[in-house]
Records
---
Amino acid sequence: MRKFTFGLLIVLAVLLVACPSPATPTPEPQAETGGQAEEGMPKEEKVIRIGAAVSETGKYAREGQDTRQGYILWQEWVNNEYGGIKVGDERYKVELIIYDDESNPDTVTRLTEKLITEDKVQFLLGPYSSGLTKAASAISEKYKIIMVEGNGASDSLFERGFKYLFAVLTPASRYTESGLKALADAGAKSVVIAYKDSPFPKSVAQGAEKWAKEYGMEVLAVESYPADIKDATALMTKFKDLNPDVFVGAGHFVDGVLLARNAEEVDFAPKAFMLTVGPSNPEFVEELGKTSNYIIGPTQWERTMTWQGQYFGTPEEYAKRYEERWNEPPTYQAAESTATALALQIAIEMAGSLDSDAVRQALLEMDVMTFYGPIKFDETGKNVAKAMGAIQIQDGNIVVIAPEEAAVADLIYPMVPWNER
Amino acid sequence: MSFLQALLNGILVGGFYGFMILGFSIIWGVMGIINLAHGEYVMMGAYFAWAMFRQFGIDPLISAVLVFPVMFVVGYVLQWLVINRVVERPHLISLLLSFGISISIANIYKLIYTADYRSVTVSYAGSFQLAGLTFPTVKTIIFFAGLLLMAALHLFLQRTRLGKSIRAAAQNKEAAKIVGIDINRVYAITAGICVGLTAMAGAMIAPIQPIFPFMGPLFTVRAFAITALGGLGRIPGALLGGLLLGIVETLLTIYVPGTGAKVGTAVSFLILVLVLVTRPQGLLKGLRPVEEGA
Amino acid sequence: MSRFTPPSASENPVRRYDIWLWVILVLLAALYPFTQPTTARLLIAIQMFMLITLASNWNLIGGMTGYVDFGHLTFFGIGAYTVGILMTRSGEVIFAPQLSFWQAWPFSGLTAMLFALTLGAATLRLKGPYFSIAMLATLLAMREIVRLFTPLTGGGGGLDLPPELNRIQEYYIALGLMALSVGLMWWIRNSEFGLSLLAIREDEIGAEMRGINTTLHKTTAFALSAFLTGLVGGFWAWQNTYIDPDVVFFEPRNLEMIMAAVLGGLGTVWGPPLGAAVLYWLREFFWNRFLFAHLLGLGLMLIFVVLFLPGGLVGLLQKGRVTSVLDLWRLQPAHEEET
């Protein structure tokens, strides 16, 4: 009996210990909190606290790392070079609090809640992936905290009527727009689409279907596949039989590798092979070698694009800065993360205030050009100014082929079949 | 498309599944342990092939041979030091233990290799034509290598002294002990062989699958299903279960429009539940009496 | 096997006081919101209460009855989708007005229970690992089935629930559900019903021969466990404001529920809650200090518990001593039965 009493007391102790004081915040180690100006300093430095929950482990570990590096790059720039965000006549340093959300939907809500109510952040930057952004944005909406995000592309994010959620990236439904247009112009007549059944790829696929029809192509088949697919040869065999001009595969990086490999295996060689997420990443080329050649992919941003922004200069200048800091070339996920933070900064400066509603108004009125491209939000919070680009891997290089104003090379169409490389 | 081509794809995918899960089936059949770290051995084999390819330009097929002794040692030591300690316990315990091993291995690999996706590009990655059908080269190689290894393993179990001890240990442990078989050693050797074989399969799939630290669980789940479907510890059972799953998934994917791949996955698991309920010993009678596995 | 067997009721014939400690604990927890905690802390507590409830429910079928359910999250998912569909889609799909959370919530438990009754009729006839596999397969099939019924479930795109997010209200719901579930487990454990379940676990054929209707008993336990798990699922969907197959059928949650029960001690009343609380706390601990390797830490911990604490934390407390690591290491495990 006494043992059980003891056991219960332990339960009690653990419960009580766990409730009030878990998880002392561990701010990102590299994150310099430029605003440590307390008693000793001659002049009091003002600080803006901005928070984000970004995956460091779990399913989105890889993409989360790009997001995090993009955020930190902006923070270091704004604190050390730019001298802090201008609010009216004053300069505010940025304190950026980033936690690891483990790619876990429960963790992301808990951390968002914590950032708002305990760390008292004034603004939030988004996590990686549409699913996590959905859970997190419901909380920021409730507290009327502005969340600017650059890594949740699913269109359904902006159909919930949220007022405080803004996204700098082009939404998923427009991912394939410029790529399909270029292909239609080159003479492609028919399309097949395969997508992983989760929010972002689904939006991409719905968009692809719409654009294909709009540009006068016939959609021969739309197939969805489960998230835990291990082999897609059956799917590819099915498509091979339909003999389409264009294949569009919507998924994440890992699906891109699998789909390309399996298409090669069953010799499904359409005239154009388009994949989301993977091809614009240099690692995709490195790992897939010659198989990756001629694959087309949508891209939010590439270093060869010709934008010119007030901050960070051109995409190439941004890329150099990024390489210097992180010793690897930036992916577009990194660039859009930096742009996310930059958009927030510009809005705060326009508003001249830290008040959520004033900044929201500024975001709605914003119409700027950045290194990432134009940013202009509509009522729902989507960036409507920026079109999606398209790249093609040509001879191991990632080159922009569409839209025309950003293109640096011509589309190679049709592609060389797998077995003739 | 010809039905034959669809069937061929199904058979090759099935052979790939069968080879992949062979080690899992035998460990389960011989020791009654459901090894949830199985997929991690596949992953280790795949990373081995990738690293050899990157470092020395060694072809994955050669790596597949090289990886066997390395992973034999890993399997032997893990079994000797850790898993042998729970063989006698209820199956939940060994499940949880191997699950712990699974998470640990995956996360150690994440620390070493990062979470990036890897792949190996070989010159023969495409396909060849034969009798009007398209054969994916790598899967065809895997299929025949798998058949060959299954035959070799079958001979080993039937003909050699060690193989006979392994079967004896599976069928009646107490009797095996009485006739002087060192059960711990037999188990460790069995584990070594199985882990080695699994890693071989892993090395061979390096050219056709994305390689990343968390790729394992998907293979483990398939292994679970196929083994239960085919019958524990039986080599033909692994092949039969693999083929059944491969063919069902492939045909459904091809012939159901729009959602075929999802229907395929759902149906293959429903078939598993159905087989379990109506014929719990699997389609072929297993190495080990069913009640004892509990 | 004897060493693994958790303490059975007969070892502690008289224990009626522990439930009062539980009541006091719950009452104390009910006062917590009055200390003006931040909502983040309330949310931490809510999530921990949910894990405790899940672990405790799983223990009813997995620990007490001995049917190790590897797919219990199926019922969580069914509950979540019931609430999700009734709150958002019922107007279009089922010809009924859209329901509020309070109207929809009870259905989440009921549908889960109905599903468990149907499924259990087939799978509960299976023994040992076969039951575990059948349940896991059900879970994996269910995740794809949910995707197939896109008009109803939103498929892979998921469903957006109206975000209400009143953390104080949620706190009391989670606390109430937890208090109820754990209290129920206590009652079952001390009742004739619970003893029958234990008898089934130890020796099902023997129990049958002693005149226990084993089918009825285990089906009841399964359905009850599914009912409560479905309620947790429904509640989870509401407080997360968004569901899709990947976040609902989230494997780590399935695993944590089982791990918590094992860590605490299978088949005991207080083990799973204790295990869940410790597990949750530990995860926070690892998350904080070993950001890069927190899952590795959990994996190693699992290995450790299985090897050295087979009776779980409650087993440890009851024995009053830690089984020496070295003692265990010296064992020749495969011969252990003979000695």
Note: Chain A touches chain B at residues 57, 59, 61-62, 197, 221-226, 228-235, 237-238, 240-241, 253-254, 257-258, 261-262, 264-267, 283, 287-291, 418-419 (CB under 8 Å).
---
Amino acid sequence: MLFFSYFKELVGKEVIVELKNDLAISGVLHSVDQYLNIKLENTRVVDQDRYPHMMSVRNCFIRGSVVRYVQLPPDGVDIDILHDATRREARGV
Amino acid sequence: MSTGPGLESLVDQTISVITNDGRNIVGILKGFDQATNVILDESHERVYSTKVEQDATAPISRVELWKAGDKIKTGEYINKEAAELTSKIEGVQQLVLGLYIIRGDNISVVGELDEELDANLDLSKLRAHPLKPVIH
């Protein structure tokens, strides 16, 4: 649940989601669910010349199971809070 | 958890699905469930040309194209042959699929197709690198 909560904090921020098929999609994080499925708004494929398949798509749903990385804005991460939360989770509190 | 990124808002709209094996299927979303299984109506597959340069390969006749489309649809071509074929055809071919169910396991991305942007696309000139299959 930690990463679910964590991603919920990032709603409204600009992220780049890299998929397991090497497609990278940038956009504004709209929502996340418990499977870490992601909805993005104002999307753009990073290498659009190579992969024009989503040229007429501006909003999309990405299945959590195909996400490899999510690139976050530097100011989107509060490392102290994250440290704290992961330690608490590890202790099982 | 009822909030979050369900597909409710896309029902009865045209969506573009990218599958784990790199296909692109466009259709009207009629239904979905928790596992992202999806029901599409009036769907078609968009097969993108991988042709590298113009005149790089011999042009393909309309009849050949039509036969090829049928063979791709019925799965008669194995991947290598299909890849070879899409390198000869120009632009995007649209293969009619009709009513289709896609199992959620096999879905990568569901995009809301902006009809206006889509109408402005010149599908006859578009080329694409083949999308890689998803490796978990």
Note: The beta strands of chain B are 14-19, 24-32, 38-48, 92-102, 107-113.
